[in-house]
Write a structure and sequence with these properties.
- Residues 6-265 form the CN hydrolase domain.
- Pfam families: CN_hydrolase.
- This protein has 5 helices and 15 strands.
- By secondary structure, it is α/β, with parallel strands linked by helices.
- Helix 1 (19-35) runs parallel beside helix 2 and helix 3 runs parallel beside helix 4 (188-210).
Length: 295
């Protein structure tokens, strides 16, 4: 029988350090989350390094790792030891010249339950991800695990209702969004509140429209590793929302934290029975959604 209730966690961290130190730090925080009762635990996007996409620099490709190497070995052993599911977002080297922004979903026995490659790749000032990442080619996926059915999207994917919908239609109970998003310090006073509010509102909307739990794991801290730039101030504020968009747990803007909430599948079913958005979808009228624009 599937679990009717299970606890999920997102971990909010400052990751402006070298890979070895970030790995040790994340292992320690995952242990702490498991001690608090978490059964499915997500780290932030690109956990192993500072956010290197602030510049276009070929030297940063050295931060990537092949599949099933350092990150997988470490977190596979940890998942098996703790009996938890761990979502591990990492910089994947697929082959020479092809790199992805990816996430392992590692099951309670240490096996790979699934792999997700970020589908939507941004190219904004100091978020120059198109230079580094090939768009994902595995599609939108729901991954069955020993704890529950997990949908994992990554950061920029969070702005796309189609991504949330397709993942939910495949049976996801929770949509996890490992994230690295923040303010340009010089813009924060003028635009910061609206930017952060939009980020929260769009994901809460995904929760409501799909009757799913949504969990966002962001990083914190000012990462100013380039000379003569203001860097990026990652705004934290990680959160977990329920299937009506209600906030179940909310982090600060500037502290390392663990957020935990319970997924209740009976509640989710009740919400979908009373708000039957899936039932009423006019799938016969949606064909144009696959067009770039309807001219």
């Amino acid at each position: 029988m599937p679990n009717k209730k299970y606890k999920i966690a997102v971990i909010q961290l400052n990751l402006n350090d070298i890979a070895e130190n970030n790995l040790k730090k994340c292992i320690s925080w995952v242990r702490d989350a498991a001690k608090l009762g978490a059964e499915v635990i997500s780290l932030p996007e690109l956990y192993s390094s500072h956010y290197f996409c602030q510049s276009e620099d070929v030297d940063n490709f050295a931060l990537a790792e092949p599949l099933y190497s350092t990150s997988f070995i470490a977190f596979s052993a940890l998942a098996k030891e703790l009996g938890v599911v761990i979502i591990v977002p990492f910089f994947e080297k697929r082959m020479a010249g092809i790199y992805h922004n990816s996430a392992y979903i590692i099951d309670t026995d240490g096996s790979e339950a699934g792999l997700y490659r970020k589908m939507h790749i941004p190219d904004d000032p100091h978020f120059y991800e198109k230079f580094y990442f090939t768009p994902g080619d595995l599609g939108f996926k729901t991954i069955p695990t020993q704890k529950g059915k997990i949908g994992t999207l990554i950061c920029w994917d969070q702005w796309y209702p189609e991504a949330a919908r397709l993942t939910a239609l495949k049976g996801a109970e929770v949509l996890f969004y490992p994230t690295a998003i923040g303010w340009h310090p010089q813009e924060k006073e003028q635009y910061g509140e609206n930017q952060y509010g939009a980020w929260m509102n769009v994901m809460k909307g995904h929760a409501v429209a799909n009757g799913v739990y949504v969990a966002a794991a962001n990083r914190i801290g000012l990462e100013q590793y380039l000379p003569d730039t203001a860097g990026i101030q990652f705004w934290g504020a990680s959160f977990i929302a329920g299937p009506q968009g209600e906030i179940l747990a909310q982090a600060s803007h500037d502290k390392e934290e663990i957020l935990i909430a319970e997924v209740d599948l009976d509640l989710q079913e009740n919400v979908r029975q009373n708000w039957p958005f899936f039932r009423d979808r006019r799938i016969d009228a949606f064909g144009d959604i696959t067009k770039r624009a309807i001219d």
